[in-house]
Design goal:
- By secondary structure, this protein is α+β, with helices and mostly antiparallel strands.
- It has one domain: 2-Layer Sandwich (Alpha-Beta Plaits), CATH 3.30.70.1290.
- Helices cover 41% and strands 13% of the residues.
- The chain has helices at 28-40, 50-59, 96-116, 135-146, 148-151, 170-174, 190-193, 199-217, 224-229; strands at residues 11-17, 73-81, 84-91, 128-132.
- Strands 2-3-1-4 form a four-stranded antiparallel sheet.
- α1 runs antiparallel to α3 (96-116) and α4 crosses α8.
Length: 231
Amino acid sequence: MRKVPFVVGQFYHIYNRGVDKRNIFSDGQDAERFLESMKEFNVEEPIGSLYEIKYERKFGRPTSKKSKKEKLVNIVCYCINPNHFHFILEEVIEGGISEFLKRLGGGYTKYFNKRNKRSGSLFQGRFKSAHIDTNTYLLHVSAYVNLNNRVHKLGNTFFGRWTSKKRSSWEEYVGDNPHSAEDDSLCTKEIVLGQFKNKKEYKTFAEETLGGIMERRYGEEAPELDSLLLE
């Protein structure tokens, strides 16, 4: 039982890393699989496996399991790094966050272990969470999560040639392509973007916020907000 239970309509910073701080994403294939799982597992009723979904789409035949299309959570933003991930999630239905993370972690661990001929846990225990209890906090955490790869100074070598546009939801927030299909979007961006005049204003806010976080992270002091973020 968590100390702070998840409540429908509330926002939470969710994060976890690999057991023994090991890498949980080795390359672009791993990252793509994780992102695909984020999208496909975010439905109210179980979907079975990603294999079943791909089979149905390829051959146009019904799989053994169907799911309701109602979402478990709203994914506000995300970032995946070699050995950890960050989300901001809004609980949409009761138990949605826990169920989403259970499916995501379990499915990805099976995939990763099979691909790497290993067994056992992949993630370091239960995922961590922090309740985002003010709007100011929400906006600042969105900047931290969207730009988390910059926080860790990963540069452009992260995941080899895998496009940097998929490492986080940053491109969804500030990208220049207005015609991108809604199906390609993982995030419910208007929760944050709707509070700014345009993408450019949010971009400025986020980069200035990150600058302050970086200065404190690599300086001598870490205010309370940053101590919650910098895990």
